[in-house]
Design a protein that fits this description.
Helix content: 40-55%
Radius of gyration: 20 Å
Structural class: alpha+beta
Distance between the termini: 13 Å
Strand content: 15-25%
Shape: globular
Order of helices and strands: EEEEEEEEEEHHEHHHHHHHHH
Largest sheet: 7 strands, antiparallel
Amino acid sequence: MTASATTSYIENITHQTQHRPFSIHHTVVHPNVPCALYLHCHSEMEFFYLEKGKVTLQVEDKDYFLQEGDAVFIPPNLLHSSWRACGLLDECSFYAIVFSREMIMDCAPSYCEHYFEPVLYSAANCPLSIQPDAEWKRDILTRLKEIFSQFQTKIENCELLLRGNLLIIWQLLYNEHLSQINSQYSSSPMFPQLMKSVDFISSHFTDSISLKTLARDAGLSEGHFCRLFKEFTGFTPFQYINRKRITKSCEYLSKTNKKIADVAVLCGFNNISYYNRIFLRIMKETPSSYRKHFITTGR
């Protein structure tokens, strides 16, 4: 494992997973530090579990108040941060497991991919607060605690247990939450076309994509396409494209030493000033400031 302490007295210890499609974090936020987790995003999914204290976790524009033992499911590519509950500056701590869908799909047949469609296509509709107010939520919380209890265990001695628990958690999450979101859209005759539009953007977001092209390929007027696309994804087509570009740039900033100007070009921005402006609008800080978080915290 590796550990690092920042000048804000946040200690983030990461469980090393040897290039597997997941990582486990344990973060201790010392007293009098109001920010528990700075604003960030990543292409993986996450379960955030509050071990101690009280915090507000913000996912996009929605706040979740968490007490000890509560969790939140965070879909991929959504902005999230965490702050102490008002007036409470005692020590708090939390765990998080950050994982790609390969963590589950590697041990499931390909025809199970539809279980991930809601978080891949309608992520903004999928965050979920998990509190012990229903049996299925209590089951998820119990299995999350079992996952995090293996934090200091060698990966070879717990990997199948982790994957198994995550498989069961995902089944519960799908049965009680994600399937409802899926059925809301799958009955629409435009569902396949909207999925194709999202897939096209995901594959070509570094290119110049016009609303006219997207609407034409979906067989809709531009206005109708924009309305359906926002209902489906939570964002306008233009917002969705820029967020894909910024999310990808966040990966480059956190995982490589590439120059910021090069990152901008790699992510489809031909103008560094425009990239900086869009990054600041979405992430609330500059690219260089965002990168510094990973230098000091490792996350």
